[in-house]
Design a protein that fits this description.
Layout (H helix, E strand, L loop, with lengths): L9 H5 L8 H10 L1 H6 L4 H6 L3 H8 L2 H19 L19 E4 L15 H16 L3 E6 L7 E4 L5 E4 L11 E2 L22 E5 L5 E11 L2 E7 L7 H4 L10 H26 L6 E5 L6 H11 L4 H10 L1 E4 L10 E3 H7 L11 H7 L11 E3 H7 L3 E4 L2 H10 L15 E2 L6 H4 L2 H4 L4 H5 L3 H29 L19 E6 L15 H8 L6 E6 L7 H15 L7 E4 L4 H10 L2 E4 L11 H7 L3 E5 L2 H6 L5 E4 L8 H25 L8 H14 L5 H44 L4 E7 L9 E9 L8 E10 L5 E8 L1 E3 L6 E9 L4 E11 L22 E6 L1
Parallel strand pairs: 1-2, 1-9, 2-8, 9-10, 10-13, 13-14, 15-16, 15-18, 16-17, 18-19, 19-20
Antiparallel strand pairs: 3-4, 5-7, 6-7, 7-8, 11-12, 21-22, 22-26, 23-24, 23-27, 25-26, 27-28
Amino acid sequence: MTLPQPLAPLHDLMLNLRWSWHPPTAELFESIDRAGWAASGGDPVAMLGLMRPGQLAALAANEDFLRRLDAAVADLRCYTGEPRWYESGGAGDVAALPRAVAYFSPEYGITAVLPQYSGGLGILAGDHLKSASDLGVPIIGVGLLYRHGYFTQSLSADGWQAERYPADDPNGLPLTLLRRPRPGERSPLPPGEVSGDPVQVTVMLAEGKLLTAQVWLARVGRVPLLLLDSYVEENEPALHEVTDRLYGGGTEHRLRQELLLGIGGMRAVRAFCEITGHPEPEVFHTNEGHAGFLGLERIREYQGDGLSFDEALERSRAGTVFTTHTPVPAGIDRFPRELIERYFAADGANGGLPLDRVLALGAETYPGGDPHVFNMAVMGMRLAQRVNGVSVLHGEVSREMFAGLWPGFDTAEVPIGSITNGVHAPTWVAREVSELGDAQAAASADPARLWTIRRQLRARLVTETRRRLRESWRQRGASGAELTWIDDVLDEDVLTIGFARRVPSYKRLTLMLNDPQRLASLLLDPDRPIQIVIAGKAHPADEGGKRLIQQMVRFADSETVRRRIVFLPDYDMALARFLVQGCDVWLNNPLRPLEACGTSGMKVALNGGLNLSVLDGWWDEWYDGGNGWEIPTADGVEDSSRRDELEASALYELIAKSVAPLFYDVGADGVPQGWLGMVGHALRSLGPLVQADRMLGDYVTRLYAPAAHASRALASDGNATARALAAWKARVRGAWPDVRIEHVEADGAEPSLGAVLGVRVTTTLGELTAEDVCVEVVYGRIGDDDELVEPSQVALAADDSAQPPHTRFSGLVELGQPGPFGYTVRVLPSHPQLASRAELGLVTYPDAPAGMSTGDLR
């Protein structure tokens, strides 16, 4: 795009996606051509590209606009250049933090203008990058550029979901090609300035076939996002399509995408750092298993430095973080083992890696596992020293799902932690609410003012709903004369409930339809009516999800209720903003505990809305009895229809007897004081917790910094520590079958609170020494099934009281828990470079039960 010279600074503004969450910059663009801004969907590149030369010339002569443009550019430069939380020591000693983090994700929801996302995973990734920019965390994002993105959704006349895949030309998006500067040019080049040849990366596929990709650069504030694109001349026609659609194609197509994301993405990061001088990442964060092959590329790199496979594996693992987002095995990518064999054969993608070791990384070698598949999540966990779920409850579910990878350990000890997701407030909070200040300030705002804002946001949602509903009906074949009723759809003074998300069966889109007559009575209540706005996409291959949508649409089409309940097709970020800002209540009713986190309700809370939800995901963690409502669950009921019936009935009861009465209980001034009191409490209790800044701070302090420390430790002395750790692990694994507990004895302390129990354990360690192991007493209350409940551990110290080949360990245990008491002992590998006691999955217990009850402690 060629602009008049006075308007050249617009390039910097429009090619930095900060405008998508920075209202002053967006308002500057909107002031150029309000009609064009609206027609482009708020896309500055598209809007400016459609302007006539005369319009641009007039704008270039507008002194007031040029002053505002200069101020906006200066503000952006200040934002991207000044030290922020990370550089200013907010996370602790800056020298101890990673110099850079590479963040890999298959999708990114930055803005609706860049449709590279399908749902929560992508929106979370986008919010992660935006908060990294705001906090100054030096992240490099890595993904794929899908020419058709995710599908756009419409409805047929009978309410069936239809998909279209419109093509996006990257040249018309806020992106620039990553290029190598010509000799003598400075680097890095300003965004939008064309220079040398585009950077290309290549990945070897099966049978020696080469896949090439170019790299597009998106600026997300301070954060560079690298997007790989296979539509290049060097590829044969079939390989152009590797980056055609998000989550499209068959199994082999998905494998090619994931090889490009992981291996090609690593090579793009190396090229970007070389060209721009950006610090090389010390930590690599894999957002779900799709990018797991990056670990293989890092192993290949380290082997090039002279390390063996095992040494390179340890070097790579230390600096890798893996985040799992799925609570169900069906959500995990699993490839046929023979397909991986074909792609990682000698002339394929292995790059010199031993095929048997590659296959072992993704093997489901645990009870119930399938020996014929390669599991991407399993590989991700084996390639990362730090693994986390995305809420406390999801962490528990993940430990149960993957417990087979760490046999012999209680579920609670499986080394999968949790960092609860958060949302990027500047993206999702309405301007009217943010002008009140932060969540604490909004909670303390004058109730009448807050209620006025809530009515404004509800009215805005009503207007947008009518516009989208009319467009949808026209797509379904209705004429304008048939649609006059849409002018009366929804009411800005009626309690508005939102439900919007992907449509897999476990999210239960149609739970509210369990008793259609009862729902209709709530919608049409003459005194306390409700209205519901619904949106969501089913995966194109999910016929069951499409049937659920059709069922919902047919109900909403009924003349009786259609002014009170609507289904809006093509759920995207633009629609999501209207929904989370305008709804009074956000409904979430998944099958517990199958919601990993569910962040849409967080966005509603920050806008002064309330949550009505099953205790799942983040709501299980932060619901306190007064900041929204809990939908009771029938967890023990095995009949799914009966369970739905019970939970739907509870939902109807809550709306009729708690939610609606509180909303409509208004004073003489028309303000519902009780409702706003609950809103204020929700803002105060949830505001500091649900934001992505909190989430990212947790990642930095709890995962990124420890990973950087471990990575540096293993790299010390020319990777000597990595070599030593790999050798130690090999020695321990080889010797472990000979590790035994020979004898356990304890003194005769009376079982009373505060008493001390002396424990002595005689072991045979074979080729290992006392320094290689930790001998523990595991003790605690005994449950109904004779298991230890919430056990504690005490390490015993080696002494010289036993004769070889035995080693004795002894120590004291304080009996400090009331109730039935018991204990056992165990031997674990021990090394300062292990991140958890279960890391190697090795543990030895006595052949005969050493645990014993010592009676009730009182």
